[in-house]
Amino acid sequence: MKYRILIAASLSEASLKLLENDPEVEFEVCKPPLDKAARRLLADSEALIVSSQIKVDEELLGDAPHLKVIGRAGAGLDNIDLEAASQRGVLVMNVPGGNTIAAAEHTMALLLALCRNIPQSHLSLRRGEWRRDDFLGVQLYGKTLGIIGLGQVGSRVARQAQGFGMEVVAYDPHISVEAARNLRVTLLEMDELLRRSDFITLHVPLTPATRGLIGAQEIAQMKPGVRIVNTARGALIDSAALYQALTSGHVAGAALDVFETEPPLGDPLLALPNVIVTPHLGSKTREAQRDVSAQIVSQVLDALRGRDYRNAVNMPFMEGVSFQELRPYLSLAEKIGSLQVQLAQGRISRVEVEYRGQEVAELVKPLTVALLKGLLAHVVGQDQVNYVNAPLLANQRGIVVAQTKGLPGPDYPNLISCRLTTEMGERLIAGTLFSREVPRIVQIDEYRMDALPEGIMLVMVSRDVPGVIGQVGTFLGQHHINIAEWRLGRNRPGDRALSVINLDTKISDHVMRELAELPEVIDIRQVVL
Amino acid sequence: MAEKRVLVTDPLAEDGLAYLRQHVAVDVRLGLSPRELAEIIGGYEGLIIRSGTQVTAEVIQAADRLKVIGRAGTGVDNIDLEAATLKGIMVVNIPNSNVISVAEHTIGLLLALARHLPQADASLRAGCWSRQGLKGIEVRGKTLGIIGLGRIGSAVARRAQGLEMKVIAYDPFVSTDYAARRGVDLVSLEELLRRSDFVSLHLPLTERTRGLIGAEELAMMKPTAYLINCARGGIVDEEALCAALEAGKLAGAALDVFTEEPLTDSPLLRNERVILTPHLAATTEEAQQQAAREIAQQVVEVLEGQAPRYPVNIPPLSPEEWATLGPYVDLALQLGRFYAQLAEGNLTEVELTASGEVTKHDTTILTASVLQGVLEAISEEPVNIVNARLLAERRGLRIVEKRAPAEEHFASLLTLTARTTEGERIVTGTVLRGEPHIVRIDDFWIDFVARGRLLVSEHIEGPGILGRVGTLLGEAGINISFVQVGRRERGGLGLMVLGVDDPLTPELLEALMKLPSIRSARAVRL
Predict the structure, then answer these.
(1) How far is CA A474 from CA A54, A477, A488, in A?
(2) In whole angstroms, what is the distance from residue B72 CA to residue B95 CA?
(3) Burial letters for B73-109: b for 16+ Cβ neighbours within 10 Å, e otherwise?
(4) Which of residues 94-153 of A touch B (CB under 8 A)?
(5) What average pLDDT does the structure give for chain A?
(6) CA distance, residue A254 to nearest chain B CA (Å)
């Protein structure tokens, strides 16, 4: 029998050749959007390779009863409904990091072009002008480059900038001081980085926490004459604030490859003479495309043949364990990791996981990986971490991971407890499965409870006095925020209580600030699982 | 003592002006023609310029009180150096101020080529979100070929290595050690052109480098390769470049310098594969500030009677010494230049042996002069007798100075022995009636005045050789002013030096090479 693969992505010639020469493979190439003919092909296909242009949702999956593997030729997973794929037992894999070099080099290209007015002077000269005095440049040598996000791309930009004799400083709450020292990069707090840098470049994923990371307030802290490069995601920068600073001259120039909305039609930034722009070309190189093509083709083939499942994003693979049984535990572990990182403050140095009970004790390895995956998704971006690279990424970031097995405790037959250590302190979160399928958080630090780890949640520490629930409940009601569940745990009566409140809608930043100011509230945090 | 007066005739960064105002009386007069400058220069002891002011012989004539001309930057093409030297006016510059700026601009252009930056910027500003034709290439793992591995070339290499590029270089006048310390492989020009994905030029415009990159060299490059020139226009044959780009023999080019500047009407302006900047490589705030600050200090120091830090034209000799050694300084320079134009392989050692009368004097200046002659051909920094030794040492060359007893037939002799990876070459000269003569090349004893245009060729001895060469030159309309032939034995290797009145084209040299018995043919200009 042959494997049938439908390709809805532009793959390199060499990769297609590889498929052509494989006697076990039959494939068809089609262009997005998928038309009727393509849908018919999909109905018989075991694998589908897609670009970011194809929306993989319930409906499409419904048309593909034989589908086993979806390969995303690239990193981003915004277009794929992972939950729906998992429900149907379809494996999804991507190619994270395939465009690291392309993105880092594009950043340096934009930085130099910005400093030396290359696009502007090129255009002027082509118009027949010779205006040398209008294009006085600035040097990189001896200047300070501030890198926000010292992951794969950020680290590479750091190395390249050092070749130019730049001093490199970085803000990254998720990387160890030692890992930064190995890169000869000084880690700073955000405000200090903003104050010290002559040039600032962004290399963080877009998450709820990083949206609008650079706003009017942050720009005001920057040195007058600073230059900004963004090849990461448009929504990291408040573009109205940037426009304002570019016209006032506080920011001397900006080079942008990404925009809040793409294409940035009518964006006033495009009309500024001190801005240079490219249409999201950061990952668009021949080499990146070639490597991504080759990798996704070989990953999909290996997965179809059951040899290897590297870069699987929605499933772990273990011999002898059925996925149906494993999945609820994986999901629980991932949620514990995600909850930990969202509640954490300061640099993470250590993750300890204790597994009590026979069922979880047999799954130590995949569950730890799942927990790390949940944790790191908020650090490097969901599309950059999977069940294979999560331990490696943790290691690169100087996070020590320890796991222990234990006998079942008195209360729960199976329990996963995770202690997270940061420079600011420790936090313990424990969870279990009820009836082997319903995830529950049963302990946060010294507070015992029974909370539902799902969707939008408030985690609140308050004084344990009468009226708190009424006060907070009324406040949320006034802001039209519906409460789905409210679970309370307390250490001892009259001291403190911890509430986990499940909500139907997200709370805006300013409402959160008001909540934090309520008299009995000690600490309150919003998380999304 | 009256306050010294300094005239500034090009825009100078504020730091420099402020320093000058503290020490001397300063006038700033911008945009003067040579005539206007000549009218007022008589009132000043110092003049500070950048590239805009033309200091012509007419200006120098009128500069009766002038002691020093300071160039806030590197190039001194706009100063009549000979006139200044004759009038005893010291010319000083800031030779290193542009190294970093040029290196950064070079990499800026390299990356702009790789990622189609100006094209992408223009397209998006015009409201187009298409990425059609804008897919770039990565530079990591690609090969950068640097022609000229001086300070700028080395600075470019370091930055390219930070981008994880493989760097190779062509520079016959650096040692392999020097290159190895920079992690750079030295190769021949042809190998560099054939292997490189990007080729960048970092050498001066001289007789030897004019048109260095012509049709033939471009044809050797990969069709996927890019050419970058931030050095001098004229090194690249622009017409041949346009033809190569249009024929798809080259992927693209980035040019900061042009044969004629300003560039106003050229097919280069309309070629989509070319990125152009108007001679901006050295134009940064930092380079200008550094140059302004340092030139102001240097000019003030010279006016206060201190020794200049970066003199361009004044030899460090007393007038008496100069009278005796002057002709030998010139001879040494010509020996160096002559060798540089015949050189093959990578230079590792320069040995200068002086014999006879001349050894009664300090001959270190002669060594400096030989090195100047050798390095002029390749160093992107202006080489002069003061900095030649330093530049040579920085390039890792071993320098040996020897003295030998007088030879029977000559009052004094200078012998340059250049050792390269390919072997050694010897050129000996003397001074006769005040003129430099070359009297020996390798094993051949000959005699000709070391001036003007020459054809130097090796052949297998036999009848009719000279006739064939003469006929070929005659057909090309080239007049021969003298002929010198040397040989070791009948039927063995012979050497021929012809004086010619007109330039020898590459085509003509190629035709010469095709003649039977001719082993090599080189054009040399002294």
Answers:
(1) 44, 5, 17
(2) 9
(3) bbbbeebbbebbbeeebbbbbbbbbbbbbbbbbbbbb
(4) 101-102, 105-106, 108-110, 112-113, 115-119, 121-126, 128-133, 135-142
(5) 91
(6) 12
Rounded to an integer, what distance in angstroms lies between the CA atom of residue A343 and that of residue B171? 60
Q: Output the pLDDT for position A179.
A: 86
* pLDDT tens, position by position, A1-22: 789 999 999 899 999 999 999 9
Say how far apart CA B440 and CA B409 lie, in whole Å: 13
Q: Residue B295, SS3?
A: helix
Contacts of B137 in chain A (CB under 8 A): 285-287
Q: Which residues of B, range 87-106, sit inside 8 Å of A by Cβ?
A: 100-101, 104-105
Largest CA distance in chain B: 82
pLDDT of the residue at A318: 47
Summarize pLDDT for B306-333 with one digit per residue, the tens.
878 888 876 556 556 777 888 899 999 9
Question: Can B261 be counted among the known catalytic residues?
Answer: yes
Question: A152 — phi, psi (to 5°)?
Answer: -55, -55
- Using CA atoms, how far apart are residues B27 and B34, in angstroms rounded to an integer? 17
Beta-bridge partner residues of B484: B497
User: Does the pLDDT value for residue A319 go beyond 60?
Assistant: no
Question: Tokens 């200008």 belong to which residue?
Answer: B288
pLDDT recorded at residue A85: 85
Phi-psi region of A128 (alpha: psi -120 to 50; beta: other; left: phi over 0): left
* Cβ contacts of A102 on chain B, cutoff 8 Å: 136, 138
Would the pTM count as exceeding 0.80?
A: no
Length of chain A: 529
- Say what the pLDDT of residue B299 is: 96
Q: Which amino acid is at B301?
A: E
Strand B198-201: give its sheet, edge to edge.
B185-186, B166-170, B143-147, B198-201, B226-229, B252-255, B274-276
- Structure ipTM: 0.78
Which of A266, A264, A262, A217 lies closest to A244 in space, CA to CA?
A: A217
* Closest CA in chain B for residue A261: B129
Where in B377-479 does DSSP place strands (E)?
Answer: 398-404, 412-420, 423-432, 435-441, 444-449, 453-460
CA distance B278 to B256: 6
**Mean per-residue pLDDT, A335-356:** 94
Strand pairing report for A483-490 and A3-8: unpaired
Q: Which residue has the tokens 């209008």?
A: A134
